[in-house]
Amino acid sequence: MFRRLHARLIRNVKCKVQHSLVNQQCIVYEIKCKLCDANYMCYTCLRLHQRIDEHKHSAIAKHLRDEHNLRPHDLHEQLLKICRGKLECLISEMLLIRNKMPTLNT
Ligand SMILES: [Zn+2]
User: Fold this and answer.
1) How many domains in the chain?
2) Which of 32, 37, 45, 56 is the most exposed place for a label (fewest CB within 10 A)?
3) How far is ligand 1, taken at its centre, from the CA of residue 60, in Å?
């Protein structure tokens, strides 16, 4: 009796995870400068192209402008983690920043 209930619970959880993976909008990612070792990590719950637009005003844009006298027209983003929600994004971003210590996340 208990075992059957448990199996059903697991099935429900799996179903929820698969469903939310379809909407891959909450992600943590890293942007690297092509000209030096500078990197920057952040999360977004927007679509990726919207977020790239936002980078024109971000720390990596400021870095390109100040350090290399460049405009941030082709930033290279690397996906680090797909999350199931904003809270998981916040936690993952915090842990990744603590582990990898990207130079522009001060
Ligand atoms: Zn640089």
Assistant:
1) 1
2) 37
3) 8
Measure 28 CA to ligand 1 centroid, in angstroms: 21
**What's the mean pLDDT in 93-104?**
95
Q: How many CB atoms lie within 10 A of CB 64?
A: 22
Q: What is the mean pLDDT of residues 21-25?
A: 53
Q: How far is the CA of 67 from the centre of ligand 1 (A)?
A: 6
Cα 73 to averaged position of ligand 1 atoms, centre (Å):
14
User: What would you measure as the largest C-alpha separation in the chain, in angstroms?
Assistant: 68
Q: Is residue 82 part of a domain?
A: yes
User: pLDDT digit string (tens) for 47-95?
Assistant: 656 666 667 778 888 999 999 998 876 677 888 998 988 899 999 999 9
Give the rounded distance of the alpha carbon of 102 from its chain centre: 13
Q: Which domain range does residue 31 map to?
A: 25-100
